[in-house]
Amino acid sequence: MTALLSDLPPVTRDLTPLFDPSSVAIVGASDDPGKYGNWLAVRALRGRRPVHLVNRSRPTVLGRPAVPSIAGLDLAVDLAVIAVPAAAFEAAVDDALEAGVKAIVGITAGLGETGGEGRRRQEALAARVQAAGACLLGPNCLGVLDHTSKLDLTVNDFPVGDIAVLSQSGNIAIDLAAQMTTHGLGVSRFASIGNQADLDVADLIESCVEHDGTRAIALYCEGFRDGRRFVSAALRAHQAGKPVVLLTVGRGTASARGAASHTGSLVSSDVVVQAACEAAGAENVSSPSQLADLLQAMVRTRPPTGKRVAVFSDGGGHASLASDCLEAVGMRVEEFPEALRKAVATELPPNATVANPIDVAGAGEQDITCFTRVAGHLVASRDIDAVVMTGYFGGFRDYSDELAVGEVQAARDIARAVAERGATYVSHTMFPQSPAAQALREGGIAVYRNVETAAWALSRLGQWAAREPHGVPQPHPAANAVTQAGYWSARMLLADAGVPFVAAAEVATREELRIAATALGFPLVLKALGDEHKSDRGGVVLGIRDQEHLERAWNDLQDRLAPPTVSVEQMADLTDGVELIVGVRQDPSFGPIVLVGIGGVYTELLRDTRCALGPLDPESARALLLSLKGAALLTGYRGKPAVDIDAAARLVSTVSHFAAAHTEISEVECNPVAVTPRGVTALDARIILAR
Amino acid sequence: MTALLSDLPPVTRDLTPLFDPSSVAIVGASDDPGKYGNWLAVRALRGRRPVHLVNRSRPTVLGRPAVPSIAGLDLAVDLAVIAVPAAAFEAAVDDALEAGVKAIVGITAGLGETGGEGRRRQEALAARVQAAGACLLGPNCLGVLDHTSKLDLTVNDFPVGDIAVLSQSGNIAIDLAAQMTTHGLGVSRFASIGNQADLDVADLIESCVEHDGTRAIALYCEGFRDGRRFVSAALRAHQAGKPVVLLTVGRGTASARGAASHTGSLVSSDVVVQAACEAAGAENVSSPSQLADLLQAMVRTRPPTGKRVAVFSDGGGHASLASDCLEAVGMRVEEFPEALRKAVATELPPNATVANPIDVAGAGEQDITCFTRVAGHLVASRDIDAVVMTGYFGGFRDYSDELAVGEVQAARDIARAVAERGATYVSHTMFPQSPAAQALREGGIAVYRNVETAAWALSRLGQWAAREPHGVPQPHPAANAVTQAGYWSARMLLADAGVPFVAAAEVATREELRIAATALGFPLVLKALGDEHKSDRGGVVLGIRDQEHLERAWNDLQDRLAPPTVSVEQMADLTDGVELIVGVRQDPSFGPIVLVGIGGVYTELLRDTRCALGPLDPESARALLLSLKGAALLTGYRGKPAVDIDAAARLVSTVSHFAAAHTEISEVECNPVAVTPRGVTALDARIILAR
Q: Which of residues 234-293 of A touch B (CB under 8 A)?
């Protein structure tokens, strides 16, 4: 955690020996066609580089001379791929380092992923690699490939292209490559990241930022060694104009297990990854197909700067369907202004629909150039932000040879007009493998088989482009560690940090209660302390109006719960107010995660919460609050006055800085926080210390 | 509306002349290869039936004799397809009827869909068709096809299979057929429903219920002539074991435009269609791909009876991904009990993961029969409700010829075990077109290319099977129509119907106010009447505690709003209560739609509302309330007592029967309704009369 909180700038490691080595050794090369060392050697030998085969017991492999150890080679070797049995792996790495190898790909499994002793040995090995000035990919990985340097040290085929694929699973990488192929996309580099003993996903992203052949980065990652380094690297890629799309697993509640507070249970691993992506300008998807679908839009389509979409169809059904799909993802299909309607109408027969959605109503069969002409009006219009062409286009070739030629020409002409105007244009066709669809893709237009996918990708593209990634905030560690976690101590620590609370006193006796009540004034609240589930167990009495009521409440609490002490507090005036939950959870990989939500019973029932990497400045906290579904409750809903959002944002910022400074605290929570038009007050506080 | 509310049983029309005619006439047959009458004639002539060509001006068409009018044929003709210019269409229909034709397919467009006069003439034409004892498909349709009777009167190719496709769009039908083809599914019948002038979607569904060659029904419908007849027909299909899946458009807010109440604005067209599908046991999807994906599961997979899924993978990435996808759609991937874990472990190498998800960890390459053996344990287990096999299976053929053969055999063996055990088993593979995937499909196992789709389809299948469709409730019209719509009149009408309200009085003067206040007792509520937006405009004063407060509130209302009258009401005790919204909107096609929701500001912000076809009995109303996302608020949340759900359900039922009996009312609403542990009370009421 400490390293993660430092202000050190990221160091970009030179991975040339990994992706473009001058020579390669295959350690564990084999003649056995059932072995990885065979498959790798066969493919390595197809390349243009010198390849040395290493086999402990055989003088020849694949009909070529082999040496028993890499140290036995006279020549310097840049990269060693090690595919030997687990028991021999560490010795093989040490041999390679001794021979001056600069990069190692560890295929062998059975080390760090077995936990405990294996993990300790893996860490020691990585330290030796680093001390030697080398780098290690894996172990437990499937190899590396770079089409731009003609390096292929994998066992699967990847289509050539400009997307870097960094994956912790071989099968997911194959899946992804297949999905990309249907979109005419391919791979610049592939790295199987394995156990990330030395090189982690952040290092590999950094190297792709520098790599000319890579235009975007596709990432499948099951675990982040250092989440904030990932955010930092992904943000660098984003700023370099290289989109990063991330697929993770473990979206469920695994990370929330063992959480003690509501905040803890609400900050699940998917929420943390989402917060990290928002900080990095990366996009987080939930399947290989989504990853490929979004990447296609990112590399082909100019992001829309607004939500007004023209639907351009050659059939009423697809026109309506596209409109529905677009509206379902938050885009708008509104009637065109008259000038545009008229312009479109001049290109189409009278039975066509031209108001948006456009239905050319059979005009395509009569004159395929109507597509080009209508598209010309659409891409030139300032009244729309994007065009979705949907339906049959691509299938007109079945009508006649003339239409087949004309259709491809129309596709090229549309693509040219889109490029010239810098327009946002995506297409759906039932015939995605047709020559016309191919011409659209070649011209730089994203093509989807399903219109809901086209709509989704367009919308996500717009959301992505509209983000202002705030990067990795740097917490400043506090001088003194927190050691007490009770309610009263949490309240005082947070009040000291600047969180406003109502006036209160901790009392142990009836006499102290009376004095405190007199000092504070009615109405009052009593809270039985010594039990962190006080509200669930009836340990909180609200709205105590007078002395008699106070006595009754005190007696009842003593009878039922016999608390060691009681907190007596002024009752906050909640008129026109909204309850919030504000909390921070320390994530082992991503550090402090700030959570805000609309509170009360809805917090858990409806999960109207949002998270961000902490700490947050008040401005970012305000933006987070306003991104809640129920934000309208804060800004003044149905005639109610707006609450003091700035004060709430300051409170969130204060809590986030406090938590980020205290990594010994695993969870901090103010729940509820009352925010009214008159200000903000925390009504409860909780601190959970890390075990 | 009146017809729809009748108790008449649906009449199944004999559509044999449409789907299996003894002879066919093509009216408007043409030699011009750019014309529909040409395409239809060419395809019709390929069939086995006598085909007669009719052309007004040419003695031969396609080298065969043609007659100028269908009446000119000596022979009786069962079915006439009419593809003539719009101006000649009605005369051609009349000619056909005169010649004794029993079924007509109207291709010609330009009649009912143009509205106004065209619609009137279309209605008259349909009446003439019915009077002649014939039936009419269309007009403005694309034809009809029945692979079981070898009838093809369309212009597109549809793969042979056992799914009936009824579609209001030709392109959507083509799209759908292509999507079905990728799943190895095909079409039994296709009918293009067009304007539904005579035969509507309900008639066509009814005919498919009787049709032996049809196993399921895929429906694309843009508008329902009579929504309740659709529900009735779809329910019959459901009860006959023929699943119905519906794709509609216009999911947006179109139908909600012009709504006066909250209920009105919340009952959008997608909500109405969803309610109709729930009543019918049909499933409502949002794209052609979803339709095909769900149909595949429906015709191949036994619905799961629970949510416990075994994930069976050949790679860690897909194992985790499948688990995430399943949990995201509400299924559960839980650790296996020890016995099952051990049984699975006996079939796999020690590095395999066997606790769920299962990762065979490379065992497939070594011995492909491990898939069959593990699957055998899974389908025999009572501890799981479904299996999702995911990942690489289908791709092992690339390793060796032996594996290629073994993989197909494994697929067959798995399919046999699934069938024998009656298990629920779906699969995802990166190689959906592989021989092994094909063998899975042939053996009756649904195969998907994307694991999120497999998870979604499995979950939807389970939801569908768990529904208890309640069919079409029959409203009983009231004797007297409602003509007054003010607050006080709405309150009295609903109170008469049995809706509990707090005691109240309508007063116009300070003197009347004083008398009423004395009779009712404090605390009180004042509502300024004469304005239906009273709460938005500050016309409601809550919590009036005493005479002085009452005077002040009265003066303030008079000063600001000068209402003609004021309602003075007892203030309800809302302790431990929940606010509900209860309303009914008359839909022009589907009749009374009942809406319930958790009320307060959340109604609109979070849209926690549910709808059903009305009227509802108290039991159905209770089920609807309990299907709300916030149902936990009703059943006792975090230590709070449960509210009186039965009383709330009775109120919903009462309001629904009242609204259903009064079709002159377009919207009825009680908002809020307070339901507490002590009972239920409506706190406001509103009636909007139909214009």
A: 247, 249-252, 286-290
